[in-house]
Design goal:
Elements lengths: L1 E3 L1 H10 L4 E4 L3 H7 L1 E2 L3 E2 L3 E2 L4 E2 L3 H9 L5 E4 L4 H12 L5 E4 L26 E2 L2
Parallel strand pairs: 1-8, 2-4, 2-7, 7-8
Antiparallel strand pairs: 3-9, 5-6
Length: about 130
């Protein structure tokens, strides 16, 4: 798995329009916190108990078809790194993780989007 900053990711996606941009956060995060423009939602964990999504591998395989790069994003880069390792363990290659994710690391006041992340870098995003 390769790791890219949000800005590197945006440039990569522009240069590789066949890449699949997977937001692996929960549906609630995707809808109410916002998400990068063009990202497809495939949760890594889901439900009120944050259970591993049993359809994750199959859904990513369907979305990426054959040999398309898969770029994973979550809130801070941790879930997406875990999901990427899972995909690789299950035979997928050409996996990328967005370091710092959509909201970035916590600051000294326990707030996000103040140090790094997709939103902090002012990259295209939308909220439903």
């Amino acid at each position: 798995m390769q790791h890219m900053t949000p800005k590197e990711t945006y440039a990569f996606l522009q240069a590789n329009p066949d890449a699949v941009f997977v937001d692996c956060r929960s549906e609630w995060e995707f809808l109410f916190v916002g998400h990068p423009v063009g990202a497809v939602l495939i949760p890594w964990y889901e439900g009120e108990n944050w259970d591993l999504n049993p359809r994750f591998l199959g859904d990513v395989r369907v979305a990426s078809s054959i040999n398309r790069p898969v770029v994973l994003l979550c809130r801070s880069g941790n879930r997406s790194r875990e999901a990427g390792a899972f995909l690789e363990k299950n035979g997928m290659t050409n996996i990328y993780n967005v370091t710092h994710g959509f909201e970035g690391e916590l600051d000294e006041n326990h707030h996000r989007s103040t140090r790094n992340g997709w939103r902090y870098d002012n990259l295209p995003w939308e909220q439903c």
